[in-house]
Amino acid sequence: MRFLLDDEQREFARSLDGMLTAADTPTAARAWAAGDTAPGRALWARLAEAGVFALAVPERHDGLGPLPLELTVAFTELGRHAVPGPLVETVAAAALLDRLGSAEGAAWLPQIASGKAVLSLCVPAVGGPYALDAEAADAVLVVEGDTVRLAESAGPVQPSADPARRLARPLGGAVLARGSAVTAAAAYAAEVAALATAAQSVGLGRALLDRTVEYVGQRTQFGVPIGSFQAVKHRLADTLIALEFAQPLLHSAALALAEGADHGSAEVAAAKVTAGEAGYAAARTALQLHGAVGYTEELDLALWIRKARPLRDAWGTPAACRARVLMS
What we know:
By secondary structure, this protein is α+β, with helices and mostly antiparallel strands.
């Protein structure tokens, strides 16, 4: 099995990195956290033009996919740049709607691919009772047992460790689909969500590591950069190794999901727990080595640090993922 990206996939990552670097994502993330979604929706449209959401939508519905490996490439960059919004939930909702096969559900797929529709997805059995960015989404899908409903409203936004992750309980709504097909479709959608979240964690971890390496080369103690201290080097090396170890697991899980392998669920769970823990460790390292300045909200670094733990726990906590691996 091949774990290295090809030239086209690497170029796709570079193009997204360049676009997002120029887009000032920290400003969009801060606005989103304050309830102003306009900058985030503008960025969403640019991502759609680059084909990000089409990767989760089949060609028969005006998409390019499903392409799980390319999706991990894209979501690694989205995590690297702390892009706000229900990105994971939208591509997972696309996977759910495609698997359901209903005409009403399929009508959303071309809109997702084009970026015209922002969806959120709530599967209480996997991620708890709250939907991400429900008030900003064009539709919120809720899966409970063998039923999918289209929520009609959302409750108040709940406090979150990451202000840009606005969580609310979806309320009411009409039934969109019911039956055994819902259970299978929801399980697949949850796998897609876990994979995309794992990719975000890897990207976030790499961003934090890059910023921390730059900082320790500038900050001095006893007349020398703290990056020259052996203990600091070891901490950074451990962070890098954890991220490097997560990367092939992420690609392996994407390939298993693309091939419909029976062990795909276990591979996704392994990638999710490894990537989530690596991203969270990168956040702890960044906070420790930045010192007191790392706690300031004004520093953009906080946008990444505050995402690490919610991403680690979203769409499969470490304990739940380890249990799935052990049961495989």
